[in-house]
Amino acid sequence: MHNLDTDELTITDVGHLPIVKQFANKINLVETVDAMAQNQMHSSAGLTVLAMVLDTLSGRNPLYRLQRFFEDKDTELLLGQDVPASDFADHNVARVMDSLYETGTGHIFSQIAQNAIGAFELDTGCAHYDTTSISVFGDYDWPDPPFRITYGHSKDKRPDLKQFLVEMFCVDRDVPIIGATRDGNASDKTLNNELLGGISRHMARHGIDPGAFIYVADSALATRSNLKQAKQNRIHFLTRLPATFNECARAIDQAVAADAEQWTDVGTLAKTPATLKRPAARYRVLETTIAR
Description:
This protein is α/β, with parallel strands linked by helices. The protein has three domains: 6-105, no CATH class; 123-238, Nucleotidyltransferase, domain 5 (2-Layer Sandwich), CATH 3.30.420; 246-285, no CATH class. The chain contains ten helices and seven strands.
């Protein structure tokens, strides 16, 4: 019988990270990145990306000092290979990130998203688009920035800070299939127009016909230019008509004047259970058409 010397053991808590690794396996994260962003380093770009994903989802926010994060970790368990922590030195990670940028992060992201759609049989019948603003501190003096950090409409109520925008186009349970970082003062109306111009081609590459999905967006979609784009690209859409359109007031007037029997009671829509102090709201809807 061999006596195990406990002084030789290193015990660390990996928490939920092995589960993350299995999800990465299911969507072929490492293999996809390696096929699209090749490099001559000892550790592949795919393994480095997986390492960054595990590091981020561990709760540690910064992407630097990745080497230190893996110094006491079982890399064979978490990465599928016995990789020395020194492979994730900052200069190695930087080279991988350069190769990802040169390949095109949007292309890589969309392919991995397509992998997820197939692996988890996600519903692509309804796709939702939205943007959010990320406020930042300090000055940014870049010689050739991929996006502008500047003042704009702050969605997190910090107009005193500069910002950039993150846009996402999601399917099923808010699973993003397109994502990008945009200028801090970019208009949602313009961004919708740019996406509408290419979304049919993008979805077609994944075997989804123009009429096979519904484009859902907020009222920034409802401009004459955007509606024209949607019609030209045969895109079905769902949005909120802004009050700047006269048709909005007409539809409201028709609904208010309608008999109660014409309304449909859809009940409660909230997933959170109601309480005595906070009862759930009930909803009724009425369908109407405005002809022009």
